[in-house]
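Holo prediction — cobalamin.
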Amino acid sequence: MQTQAEILSQSIKAAALQAGFDTVGIVRPASLEAGEEAIAAWVAEGRHGSMKYLEEFRLRRARFEQEFGEIKSLIVLGVNYYSGERATRPASRVTLSGRIARYAWGRDYHGVIREKHAALIGTIRQHAGPDFKAKSCVDTQPVPERYAAVQAGFGFAGKHTGILNPRFGPWLFLSEIATNLALTDDAPEPGTCGTCNHCQTACPTGALDQDYRMDARRCIAYLTIEHKGAIDRELRPYIKDWIFGCDECLVVCPFTSKSQESRWKEFLPAAGAGPALDVAELFEIRSNSEYEKKFCGTALLRAGRKQMLRNACLVLGNSGDPAAVPYLVRALQDPAPLVRQHAAWGLGQLGGEPAFRALEALLARETDIDVLQEARLALGR
Ligand code: B12
Ligand code: SF4
Ligand code: SF4
């Protein structure tokens, strides 16, 4: 005989799949303690770089519970965002474009998933009675989402740290609905990478320096999206043509062969910026408000204009293409010193008479110390 909690849990799971979620499971908050500890240990080693919000994880969770009341269960949801098509660059400008990580090809998943949560919460309310409370959590709330996904039976965390699901491989967005309902929790599914280490050898920057752990300070996704300042000179060449995020470790993972095309139109390239950005077009964007207008509704807003142009300068500098020089010369006039600094580096990488002339002219007028330093280094001084 099924308990009331089991019946309710089953109907919630059925409703989640009906709403379009690809995986669903249930966990108790207490089962996430080891995940929180793993984050605290990782932060204590400084591996989070400048992502301050991870330092305050426990405090933020306590505040969250204070506001919400007792969370009895988390409904963990997965969305397959694999959009089928391989990352390609516009054929006409092979080197003057930057690659975008697949998670950001379509619409920003935060908004899309929150909308779906709202509809699902409405459906659950019909089954759950008047005292039902729920809160949508997508990425930014203090939930250790990968740990929650493991506990919910979605798969195991691979050496690249991503969750590997037997049906969808590494391409699942994770989210949760926190609730005051006491539901029946699921059990983790065992799994392991075995002797495989493809992701570790494929990582261009050596960010996957320990099994199942990364050093975010070296990760291209961190450097191009989360990190706001200058990018370490040593790491710049390894970024190659990644302008926003990186998928190298996910693409080489044997679990990727299990990927199925997403049913969510919102995440297909046609719904957003797609797999590549035309760098020349980027340099036409003159203000933050123009940038926000152009990329409205996409995850590209996470990096501001100056960070995206900083990334573009690196992509051009790494391109080895003399056609990139005029764009970098123009970027030396950018109002943001961060952009001028990375443009100077790019010109130093490409070299040639026009690049050096532009750098000399910059030395004569520049006042920012970091830009001056970069220009001198680019000129080999
Ligand atoms: C900070 C962050 C980043 C950072 C750091 C990534 C990292 N590996 O820590 C940066 C900016 C580099 C990043 C990059 C990316 N991210 Co991110 N990121 C996050 C965020 C906000 C927090 C992650 C975190 O706490 N990291 C700290 C480390 C210690 O935790 P962790 O890697 O999550 O590892 C946990 C598990 O391994 C778990 N665990 C599992 N089993 C076991 C067993 C035991 C015994 C123990 C102790 C622990 C354990 O413990 C850890 C702590 O909970 C989450 C959202 C969230 N709220 O969780 C998204 C999230 C992890 N990111 C996501 C994505 C999609 C990406 C990118 C693919 C985007 C891209 N292509 O550019 C890359 C992937 C790079 C990679 N190889 O991880 C997804 C991952 C989905 C999935 N299927 O795994 C998440 C869950 C966002 C979401 N809502 O979907 N990200
Ligand atoms: S996302 Fe790229 S840089 Fe980051 S760990 Fe994976 S392969 Fe390395
Ligand atoms: S590439 Fe290999 S080692 Fe890395 S996560 Fe996938 S299965 Fe594990």
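READOUT: The CA atoms of residues 101 and 246 lie 5 Å apart.
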